[in-house]
Design a protein that fits this description.
Length: about 260
């Protein structure tokens, strides 16, 4: 069964994450762009999710923008950054679905030191935009014939409704070529952090809750596949004690929360 929760997608082309210049209306600190593009087929090739084609329907974000806007956060690198962590960069001041284009956002960035560290890269358009979400409704098609967008007859998923958890700028894209829309490694990277980085497990547990993290880890394979081995060795004494088993890491986090 294809995972549907805590998935990560991104784009890195023009229009993903920009800062309004001082010459424009506003303060010159407004982050804006389209973090998702509608009706563009993308090949997902992931050890966690599988291999298939995916597109986001132009109504997929309507409900979550309407009902959950106050719960959506603007984060850098999904809270992975060791310096910034899960501190919000700003509030999502504008969230809307631009039909035929994508999911649009505006966020007035906070006046804080950790945000200032990102401003040069944002103003130089060196960052992309990524979002983490849960699929609420989807449609699957098993094509019988080859097509121009699907020459290998991969299963096709159209996402029609989501719960959006957070979005924001990222250093590296989840798509190698966002314009062409090829392979996604965003969810793999997110899961690798949960499997390899005790500090991230702790931060994410504080933000999402113990039950959420337990549910995610329960879906992971038991073969110990992880992301960057160097991150495992850099995790410190806790990482050495627990190894690469995320369930052991979670047990350690739970024990500390009970102290």
């Amino acid at each position: 069964m294809t995972p549907t929760d805590n998935l990560v997608r991104a784009r890195y082309d023009d229009g993903a994450a920009s800062i309004r210049s001082d010459g424009d209306s506003g303060s010159g600190r407004t982050l804006f762009g389209h973090f998702a593009v509608f009706d563009r087929w993308t090949e997902i090739d992931s050890w966690y999710e599988g291999r298939f084609l995916e597109r986001v329907g132009d109504e997929a974000f309507d409900r979550t923008f309407r009902e959950r806007a106050d719960k959506i956060r603007v984060l850098y690198d999904h809270g992975h950054d060791p310096s910034i962590g899960n501190k919000p960069l700003g509030a999502p001041d504008v969230l809307r679905s631009d039909k035929g284009v994508g999911a649009y956002y505006e966020s007035e960035l906070f006046a804080s030191n950790y945000v200032e560290e990102l401003m040069p890269a944002l103003r130089a358009s060196q960052l992309g935009a990524s979002f983490r979400f849960r699929v609420v409704a989807e449609q699957w098609v098993e094509p019988k014939k080859e097509s121009s967008h699907n020459p290998h007859k991969l299963p096709e998923r159209t996402i029609t409704d989501v719960d959006l958890y957070e979005f924001g700028p990222v250093t590296f894209p989840a798509y190698d070529d966002a314009t062409a829309g090829v392979r996604s490694t965003g969810s793999d990277a997110f899961i690798a952090h949960l499997m390899d980085d005790p500090r991230f497990v702790a931060r994410f547990t504080e933000r999402a809750g113990l039950s959420v993290v337990e549910q995610i880890l329960a879906t992971l394979p038991a073969d110990g596949r992880t992301g960057d081995p160097s991150r495992r060795s850099a995790a410190g004494q806790d990482g050495a004690r627990t190894g690469s088993d995320p369930r052991a890491v979670l047990a350690l986090v739970a024990a500390r929360r009970c102290r």
